[in-house]
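INTERNAL AUDIT FORM
Audit reference: QA-55
Scope: verify that the stored structure record matches its stored sequence.
Auditor: D.O.
Record contents follow.
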Amino acid sequence: MARITASVYTSHVPAIGAAMDLGKTQEDYWKPLFAGYDFSRQWMKDHKPDVIFLVYNDHATAFSLDFIPTFAIGTAAEYQPADEGWGPRPVPKVIGHPELASHIAQSVIQQDFDLTIVNKMDVDHGLTVPLSLMCGEQHPQTGAWPCPVIPFAMNVVQYPVPSGRRCFQLGQAIRRAVESFDEDLNVHIWGTGGMSHQLQGARAGLINREWDNAWLDQLINDPAACSEVPHIDYVREAGSEGIELVMWLIARGAMADVAGGPTPKVAHRFYHVPASNTAVGHLILEN
């Protein structure tokens, strides 16, 4: 059967993608951030998955305020990088895995989660920046991402957004779906977005290092309790866009220990402030 062997968590700040695309990764401002992913890129080579299930939020590219699915799973064969107003990022197209994606959709919907099925969409920085951070620069024509990717877009832009508890339960349903797929596949599940940041209003630029790291501690050691953190705490402590962290709970819910398995191994943990106006968090857990 297929199995989830690891979960990866990382911020997806658009300025990180721009720094890579414009050759600025070794500038004084950016160098410490990218150094935090040196381990991760080697780890990806040493633990190459067959498929990545990548949880992210769309930033008004595939979906607008006219149509906002709460949970949307991509079942297409491929996805083009989106034009977010200044042209698509110069990265390869994303190859999908329609068979596993369709199986997960079938299984998760039968477990009473309502998913939107997306057979065609472009993918924005929320998905491509994590791939670039973990896999390194890839030429759009001659390069390729290391494996197929299943995009899973979640609404954390327009309220109401799902609770942390619902996301955590969804991760458990996704693990059961993967394990019922009748093919020997090594699957990674990624949760992206966050950490603390606020992009507008009187608190624009807010970063809360202490809260971020305490939340990471709880995500690792007591994910069930972490899933009970109310939305108002994210907004108060981590800023209006800090709510993106609930997407990490989908990936954490898919780990074996949540279903009574062994405690995951912390392969890597990294935290850096700031990247543009965001706190960057990064974590790799191995089953």
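Auditor finding: record pair retrieved intact. The CA atoms of residues 70 and 160 lie 9 Å apart.
Action required: none
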